[in-house]
What we know:
Elements: H1 6-20, H2 26-43, E1 46-47, H3 49-56, H4 60-68, E2 74-76, E3 83-86, H5 87-102, H6 109-120, H7 133-141, H8 145-169
Antiparallel strand pairs: 1-3, 2-3
Amino acid sequence: xxxxxxxxxxxxxxxxxxxxxxxxxxxxxxxxxxxxxxxxxxxxxxxxxxxxxxxxxxxxxxxxxxxxxxxxxxxxxxxxxxxxxxxxxxxxxxxxxxxxxxxxxxxxxxxxxxxxxxxxxxxxxxxxxxxxxxxxxxxxxxxxxxxxxxxxxxxxxxxxxxxxxxxxxx
Length: 170
């Protein structure tokens, strides 16, 4: 597979995910999923804000406002204070924005995409280790019971898969 820049890889992942939804053949879906995972692995966990803003077609200042309102999750590398846009969340938002733009939404596509994803519960949230009590309280007060349950189920699934991998590697 040819090497791609991270920006190209992000754009390819968005398009391939959209194409995968139209494929009915399980083998084709599986093979395409493998290609998507390989491209996705090259992107990493976070994307610099300037690149994320360019990908979404908005200014860095607009992106900062969405990050500041906690609508768009960010990650930090250990020991760094630099915020990166969570790559998985960026991909989901980019997919939704592409869909909206194809439907003719020109202005406010990012706002509409984030609102739609939050309403549908499709915007990935990142739980961070060592969150302060204030951060945990804020998260609790600003989520619904259904969202908290979904997060607990997700954590349980991750714990089960890690336990299964550990058991299989022994």
